[in-house]
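Training component of the fellowship. As part of building independent skills, the fellow (R.M.) carried out the full modelling exercise for a liganded target. The chosen ligand was calcium ion. The inputs are recorded below so that the supervisory panel can assess the work.
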Amino acid sequence: RGAASKGFANMAQKIIIDTDPGQDDAVAILLALASPELDLLGLTIVAGNVPLDRTLQNALTICELARRPDLPVHAGCDRPLRGALVTAEHVHGASGLDGIELPVPRMLPAPGHAVDFLVETLRREPAGSITLVAIGPLTNLATAFERAPDIAARVARIVLMGGAWSELGNVTPAAEFNIHVDPEAAARIFASGAEIVVLPLDATHKALTSRDCTATMRETGPVGRAVASWTSFYERFDQAKYGREGAPLHDPCAVAWLIQPELFSGHRVNVEIETEGRFTRGMTVVDWWAVTDRPSNALFIRDLDRDGLFRLLSTRLASLDRNPAP
Ligand code: RIB
Ligand code: CA
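Fellow's submitted model of the complex:
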């Protein structure tokens, strides 16, 4: 991690965010757009929380809210590598971005499939200069790695929200949603040899929103109002399910790790993906205590500084309302 932190010290880190917006994806994208440490080259869209036509529309809506109609948004895969798409309208609402009515976006998606954008960009830019931030099912990334195996060595790192160890699953007793939707894609990514940083439920379940934080955000302007409305909508599901105040802001943790990795802690361990288990398909099998001789293939984050994370989030999101993008 030292290398990663030093690398961020003096130049913006080029990133591509692969996403299935979703309210928490939206907050992650806005955080990236508000952070000078990051140079967001584009969004690649995948089916997940809701079908692809809606995740694509939601991504365009988010870009226009941030006044970034120039940002390339590429539509990607509309179903997992194997089996049918599993969505989560019961969590995110029918639109996938319920909580506030926003104008229908006028900006258009960029031409070209998301997988082509990933392959072409990674081949064009210097090796090791681009980080992939994956905050949805891993179908686009796995398809790109399948089509162009050479790009796995060109990626600086993959920072992904997904999986779980001691928190087990949030969509089945064994599996977290992003991995559950496309276990074959996840298995391909974890076997790719790319440097992987995992923000699992063990960490993101500690990124709980609070009424105070949401109320403060609501006052900053259109971006803050949208974020507060999204989190208020999103909270109802987790509060009913887990019986606690607040909701976990999963996806912003992946972006925040790139900005302030010192807010997080974890170990390099072996992570395998169960693709066949009758009850465990989609499980991340984490060898936290190194009881096997399987090689470490991921930095698995298990803890975070919640207050530090929300200080970062609220100050950066407020900046989008104070000095909107050009
Ligand atoms: O399990 C949480 C993950 O699934 C988040 O990325 C959320 O947006 C959904 O995609
Ligand atoms: Ca997501």
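The panel noted the following from the submitted structure. The longest strand covers residues 264-273. Residues 20, 22, 24-25, 48-49, 135-136, 161, 170, 176-178, 250-251 surround alpha-D-ribofuranose (ligand 1) (CB under 6 Å).
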